[in-house]
Amino acid sequence: MKKKLFSILLVLAMCLSLTTVAFADVSYGTYTGTAMGRNGEVVVETSFLNGEIVSVTIVSQSETAGVADPALETLPIEIVENQSIGLDAVTGATFTSTAILEAVASCIKQAGGDLEEWSKKIVKEAGEDIELTADVVVIGAGGAGMSAAAVAGASGASVILIDKAAAVGGNTILCGGSYNAADPEVQKNEPISEAQRKELASYLEMDEADFGDFGPTLAILKEQVAEYLDSGADYLFDSIELHMIQSYTGSKRTGLDGTVIVPDFELISSLCHNALDGWHWLQSIGVPTREDLTTAVGALWKRTHQVEVPPTGAKPLTDALRDYVLSQGVEIMLNTKAKEFIVEDGVVTGVLAEKNDGTKVILHSNHGVVLATGGYAGNVQMCVEYNNYWPDLTTSARTDNSSNAQGDGIKMAEAIGANTIGLGFVQMLPTCTALDGQAGKGVGSKIYVNKEGLRYISENSERDVLSKAALAQTDGVFYGVGDAEMIATQGETKINESEAMGYIFIGDTLEEVAEKAGVDAEALIETVKKYNEYVDAQEDPEFGRYAFSNKIETAPFVIAPMSPALHHTMGGVQINTDTQVIDTNGNPIPGLYAAGEVCGGIHAGNRLGGNAVADAIVHGRVAGANALAFER
Ligand code: ADP
């Protein structure tokens, strides 16, 4: 378990000078309290002297790096300063905050204190209004907002970037750091399998007439594929057109009401044409990246570039973005929630926001405003309300999102006439932990089996297809099975952390690991034997898988129990390729730009795995540049 020590030791003199009221009922001494956080136990020590809390120390915790830090750092101080646990949770770190407050409550109880007195609500007072002007105002400091702020800042503009959370990163910090971009130079080093050749050949049979706006793209792809197959090349084929066509087929879906939703051709074209440049830009600003390519879950092709991330999320990505943004002179205002746009003569000229103590923040922009507030998969109620895809979605569905993903920006934009697209389409990520519904905690796997030890789907399928199939298995749980290769690619540290957290099981034999994970061992051994034969034959007669891993054959073996959770909302405000927000009459709203998950239309009914970060970076950069270029 990762251990961090946040210690606040206040000298006695300071304690005595506190103006807040203490309750003399607590006994002198240091007590230990424990409560469950997001990832496990949070252990806290609280010291009492002369009826006051003199220190709160986090002894151990395994909370999500970056997301939980503001709570771990500020709450112990605030408890001592206010001599109370009647404090609000830190925005975006609710689980961790609650755990700290509960653990300190336990200490107060052990010390004989009256919990009711110590829990009296601390009401923060609003400060004086803050009124500022910048060239560009950006709302939301996730991947899209930080990219927009970075680009505008790098052009020498003054930029204010606000976020309602206590730390930057949004949902982007929780992702696996997967980024799709066709990169034929790098893919020349990747072998192509027979099954992938067959998959490519299948495009030759497809009819342009079935592809709407994407018909001409399919025609180009067919020419590329024919030439490639004729050449007898043995490296992995890829092209911008293949990425576009897979983004089309992977996201064209029919809603429960029969509506067919397809992705916006122009936006997909812009995403796929600019993704590689966006990746190189990330590398140029210091984001740590891996050299090898992967296939993100539901990515459909091996074109996923990887940010170097630990199992605890994509903090290295958002840290690097934040550092670059700050180096470009951008002012970041945290704990600042946008409430509404300032609109003058039909032009968006700023934002009205509020600090978490109620202080009013009025921000004016000389040029444009960028909306990058992310999606609403943290708002299960809203997902259920709009749902037009999942037959049995209820408010008991799990989400892997930050609680900040509430759809604020969509509502703000709708209030000034913005059009929305596809709000009924929410993606469930199949590979969330069965333990707590979090994403990105696994270590990769070669096949998926159910509790009975049987495969039930082609692992190459799209995320919605995988999720639907997984939910139909016993307990709605499935098991990713891997071997020593996972340990080699993920590194021992990541594997050990995931095992310690209970996200994976490891065993020297398939039998041992199956028993640990609660999977039928005999059936699993048979399933693995069959799969290994399919790898040899490069053909999966059962489920039609077309991209195979190596065989599962080298100990130690790994099993990760997983279950789908709400993950990404495809619906949102309509934008054009200049990232201008479009109103319900089809016209751009002057001064307002949007990027990232707050936007709808690009991922239609199901986003390809690995397309979200690429979209946030590509269109975030466009939004930053265009908001700065906007003149009234
Ligand atoms: P994306 O990168 O696709 O934009 P993220 O979820 O990574 O998505 O980032 C969205 C950010 O927007 C989060 O950090 C979230 O806290 C922030 N946010 C959401 N609503 C508001 C709001 N009303 N005011 C300010 N920030 C907001």
Helices and strands in order:
Elements: H1 12-16, E1 29-36, E2 41-49, E3 52-60, H2 69-82, H3 94-110, H4 115-118, E4 130-134, E5 136-139, H5 143-154, E6 159-162, E7 178-180, H6 184-187, H7 194-204, H8 215-231, H9 240-249, E8 253-254, E9 260-261, H10 265-284, E10 304-306, H11 315-327, E11 331-333, E12 336-344, E13 347-355, E14 360-365, E15 369-371, H12 380-386, H13 408-415, E16 420-421, E17 426-429, E18 447-449, H14 463-471, E19 478-482, H15 484-490, H16 492-500, E20 505-507, H17 510-517, H18 521-537, E21 557-562, E22 565-569, E23 572-573, E24 580-582, E25 588-594, H19 611-629
Parallel strand pairs: 4-14, 5-6, 5-15, 6-11, 15-25
Antiparallel strand pairs: 1-2, 2-3, 7-10, 8-9, 12-13, 13-14, 16-23, 17-22, 18-19, 19-21, 20-21, 24-25
The structure holds adenosine-5'-diphosphate.
What does this structure look like?
By secondary structure, this protein is an alpha+beta fold. The chain has 3 domains: 16-118, Alpha-Beta Complex (Sufe protein. Chain: A), CATH 3.90.1010.20; 137-190 and 235-389 and 403-418 and 581-629, 3-Layer(bba) Sandwich (FAD/NAD(P)-binding domain); 431-563, Flavocytochrome C3, Chain A, domain 1 (Alpha-Beta Complex). Helix content is 33%, strand content 19%. The protein has 19 helices and 25 strands. A 6-stranded mixed β-sheet has the order 11-6-5-15-25-24, covered by helices on one side. Strands 4-14-13-12 form a 4-stranded mixed β-sheet, with helices on one face. The protein has a 4-stranded antiparallel β-sheet with strand order 18-19-21-20. Helix 2 (69-82) packs parallel to helix 3, helix 8 (215-231) crosses helix 9 and helix 17 crosses helix 18 (521-537). Residues 1-20 have low confidence and may be disordered. The site of adenosine-5'-diphosphate has 27 residues, from helix 5, strand 12 and helix 13.
